[in-house]
């Protein structure tokens, strides 16, 4: 049996267990006992060991080691750690974690992950997969349960350590990297445990106990990890794991995740005419609440930067880009449920994120859109690099909706329209030369999406409508005209029927209209023949024929009247209906938000990790103060008086109190 990956991880565990700093944190006796335990496991699994170890024995041994390693967080001597911090002026312990302890936990999880690579099971065969899971599940479940006790520290630290490297010390960077390794190996265990393919969205959601903040923090820990040269033990499939995590993350906004199996059962009940189903408004409220919680979690975790950074370097850039577009449009989509429905569906006592009504949800979504707008260049650079063959009608529809929410730069949008339409036209011409019946470059739904994209980017249409002499078309801004010109050419090639279909798709658009004048000019220049039920206006014999009558351009939709294409049909009225699912417990964000005010930073209100105290008695997170002093030119962010970092010593007493508060919270004592 090859225990190579496991042995390498155990060697790192032994190294961390034998460090003086870990002994100073948890006590010499506890550290020595754990070191002996890790060393014993290492000797038993070494090649040539006198005692052969079976896979079940190795599983029990390594899972117990991981349990005991996680349990060391409760043995940290907070008073001693605080004194060590004062003596050496370094961040020795953060919320009960030292760098060595975090590294030991990560490597013990790596050893457990190695177990899932042992044996002769073919995980693509269901019977083999179930046999492997049955073998390890009884030992893995206690590890997962104990890991939940430290999720607070991992989540809080990953969200806290999001500043520039120049604003963080080496200790914080090492600790952040160790927390990222914990996330990597946890999701590696989950991925290998599934065994039948890439990580599934439902598995990520279930592992996070339905907590969007924890799910996104885990994903951020993996996606934000930089594979620098070093001695870190990493899963061999890390690039594939990152792609799988991103794709699983981007599926969290779907109705399947929002409702679990309840929505599917409800749709079946609709088909059967069974009483007691969700109404349409109940479904919309449940979906709006779920997506606004995800948007809030994405803002709290500063998720967009590592998300887009990974897509840029991904080997599956096209697939990942489309997944990100779908994820962002799901989270940024305007609220669609009625305000009155929230009072009937959402019980105030059950909400744990402060989102209790339609206004709260809309405010969260607006904040998310504002944050996404700060990444518009990198976001649209990825979108506009998509190849035409990757752009089906659904993808283009999502791109158009995203453009209405986060407008793309005009020049880049123009360049993309040129590339997309020219390449597609070339494919069409090649098909026609091969004897294939002619067809439009894009289907009508896709062309409508491109028109909406052009309008959202502020690209102006030609000054003359289709059908009035296309060769005389002109544009106001030649620099941005190339994209409009190519789109105009594609529209000009359409038949009257096809043009009418494009207009109908535009009329049914659900996207908010940010540039109504530009949008209306595009719409009015398509030149669609009037519908049979709408008579054309008579024209004078000597005058140029009047352009055909068009349907009125759509107004920005009212939230209450907008159907969601992903939502099932409305259920029949029923005297009583089950409520959409509510969180079973307070989220990590909510629990951290309840921290006492004296343990929170005066700048951002978050729980302190590395507190410093100013001469005026104000308490700041050290990295926040550094950032504030840089932006204000050396002025206190609260008093506007001159202040320097040297005047603000670390507050070891507050660090100790914050760590104790988090520890008690993890034990359920707060």
TrEMBL record:
Pfam families: U-box. Coiled coil: none annotated. Residues 598-661 form the U-box domain. Residues 544-583 have a biased composition (Pro residues). SUPFAM superfamilies: RING/U-box. Residues 463-484, 530-588 are annotated as: Disordered. GO terms for biological process: protein ubiquitination. Residues 530-543 have a biased composition (Low complexity). One of its GO terms (molecular function) is ubiquitin-protein transferase activity. This is U-box domain-containing protein.
